[in-house]
């Protein structure tokens, strides 16, 4: 029976989650559905049944599982009828094992609105080869996932007139809808004697309270600033604006030490990163073409690391936001024909950019 409670709780959770996507959908006469049911019964304490020729008392707790199918039909906008069949599995009170049976019947349901309904019906409930004819009262709640699929949860009480049992039930169901609404003749409007024409009142002058060029009756954004452009609905127009921050630091020959004169540019990059904490930076190190390629690769990595360390240790940028990479002599900035050309190639480079949405001014 613990498994029964777990299944019911899981199914109710699924049904409640569907509320987020549910929509109201008023069904018309002539439409019908086929549905699946899962629920639980709280059997009467006097309910008994046979198992292998022996009579046992049924578990009277809310632990009896019933699963089945139902078919329903909309009679009118408010009245619905349905028939159902459930397979019943009840525990034995004080002993292992289960009693099996079935429940089948029909209901007439009245819908107070698109979601809440109540009804009355008759059924036969059998447990362990002993059955009772019963009258059942039901209240329920239904919501639609789309026009063709709905879920519902309901509960109620049933009372037997043969074995004098009183039992309670709760279940949840999923219903698939079919059919076309029954055509209803349009109502004839009563004829009304024409009234004498009244002189038309002059229409009031349109008002533009915030002076943005869009009258109040069409203005969805009131009190927009006077210096901003607005769209046809009176709302501020925006455009994308790209902001870039570039960093270029040169180094002395065979050196990876950052010149003190370059700290100002590094600080500007640090301030840009603090203003845009979502950005991460990669520092790219380079050398000129003199020397061995392996040495130049090592030197370019040292130069990139020196600038990365300055950003982290001197200007407080988080270490996980800064990385570095050396390119050796593979990416010369200029073709080397002089000492000045080689100086331009002894460098690090880094760039950040961010796209902001900014208002368009008049």
Structural class label: alpha+beta
Tell me the total number of β-strands.
Answer: 14
Q: How many discrete structural domains?
A: 2
Report the biggest beta sheet as strand number plus sense, adding barrel if it closes: 8 strands, antiparallel, barrel
Assign the CATH class of the largest domain: Mainly Beta
Largest sheet: spatial strand order: 1-4-5-6-7-8-9-10
CATH architecture classification name of the largest domain: Beta Barrel
Proportion of residues in extended strands:
35-45%
- If you compute it from the alpha carbons, what radius of gyration comes out, rounded to the nearest whole angstrom? 39 Å
Task: Give the overall shape, derived from the CA principal axes.
Answer: elongated
Number of helices: 4
What is the chain-wise order of helices and strands?
HEEEEEEEEEEEHEHEHE
Helix content: 10-25%
Instruction: Indicate the multimeric state.
Output: single chain
Key features of this structure:
362 residues; alpha+beta; 16% helix; Porin; eight-stranded antiparallel barrel; single chain; 2 domains; four-stranded mixed beta sheet; 60s Ribosomal Protein L30, Chain: A
Structural features, described:
Helix content is 16%, strand content 41%. It is an alpha+beta fold and 362 residues long. The chain folds into 2 domains: 177 residues, Beta Barrel (Porin); 120 residues, OmpA-like domain (60s Ribosomal Protein L30, Chain: A, 2-Layer Sandwich). The longest helix has 22 residues. The radius of gyration is 39 Å and the shape is elongated. The two termini are 72 Å apart. The N terminus is likely disordered.
